[in-house]
Amino acid sequence: MAKGKDVRVRIILECTSCVRNDIKKESAGISRYITQKNRHNTPSRLELRKFCPYCYKHTIHWEIKK
Question: Which CATH number covers residue 56?
Fold first, then answer.
C-alpha cells in the first residue's frame, strides 16, 4: 500500500534576529530548532518564540525551506 504525503512533516525553525545580524557579522552563529508540524492544521509557515543562545533572549523563529 503506497503512502501519499505525510501529514506530520519535519521543519527547521531559524532565529530571525541572528539572520539579520549575520549580515553585519555581529552574531557568532544562527540558532536553529528542528520540530514537527501537522500539514493539515497549519498549512502556512510556522513562527514560534524560542530561546536563542546567540542572542541570549527569546526571539521569533521562522520556518525555513529545506
Answer: 2.20.28.120
